[in-house]
Amino acid sequence: MIRRCIAILICLLPSAAGFAEQAADDSVFSRTERLRIDELFARLAIPALKDDSTAELAEIANRSEQKIQALINDRRADDRLIAVKLAALLADVSTKTDILSTRILPPDESLAVRTAAVSHLASIRDPVAFFALANALDDVEPSIRASAVNGIGALRDPRALDLLLGVMTDPDASVRIASVGALEALNDADALTPLRARLEIGRAHV
Fold first, then answer.
1. What is the DSSP letter of 144?
2. In this structure, what are the phi and psi dihedrals at residue 65, rounded to the nearest 5 degrees?
3. Predicted confidence (pLDDT) per residue in 87-117, tens digit
4. Alpha carbon of 51 to those of 84, 116, 163: distances in Å?
């Protein structure tokens, strides 16, 4: 029954044409960023790259956690974005989550940095990221809220039910549609009544 409601709702809800597409791999560094990384590593006394591969970057990042944490608060947004991408390469999920979550809440943080931080948090798929993703639901940018909803849905955490039910009334269609998919992932019978109510609302607008 839940899956049937989900399928109908996706057809009836407004189009999510405005939904921001996720990059294929946010950890990929541009050529400009690669050059900047060399400068940052020199400034932070981190050994220079040898083969410039993502694997080498991950190895260096995991040896330099504290320096990555310092870089995440750099005054330049471009450097903070690099720090977010480096933090995403860390092996320790808790450390990665702690670093990335610091770039979600500041209201003056750039959209690019917030987007990358939430995208990487959503890809962790570990319960430790739950509260950080929940905080991102308050972001003013719909694409970030939708990304957070998708990440919460991927966790399949029972704690998410009330959060996702609340997001069903989000003013942005892409976020509402993401909430429906996330509720399907939970497969919780308690979601059936509000899903039916949303279905009736959707039918009324057809």
1. H
2. -55, -45
3. 999 999 999 999 999 998 787 899 999 999 9
4. 21, 25, 44
Q: Which token pair is 163?
A: 């959060």
On whether the CB atoms of residues 97 and 129 are closer than 8 A, the answer is yes
Question: In the numeric block, which tokens belong to residue 100?
Answer: 């990335």
**DSSP letter string over 60-114?**
HHHH-HHHHHHHTT-SSHHHHHHHHHHHTT-S-HHHHHHHHHTTTS-TTS-HHHH
DSSP letter at 192 equals H
DSSP helix/strand/coil, 174: helix
**C-alpha 202, offset from chain centre:** 27
Task: Tell me the longest C-alpha to C-alpha distance in the chain.
Answer: 62
Calculate the alpha carbon distances from 106 to 110, 131, 181 in Å. Answer: 9, 16, 28
What global pTM score does this model have? Answer: 0.79
The helix (run of H) or strand (run of E) holding residue 186 is helix 173-186
Q: In angstroms, rounded to a whole number, what is the distance separating the alpha carbons of residues 194 and 186? A: 14
Q: What is the pLDDT of residues 47-62, one digit of tens each?
A: 888 887 889 999 999 9
176-194 CB burial, b ≥16 within 10 A, e <16: bbbbbbbbbbbebeebeeb
Distance CA 122, CA 145 (A): 11
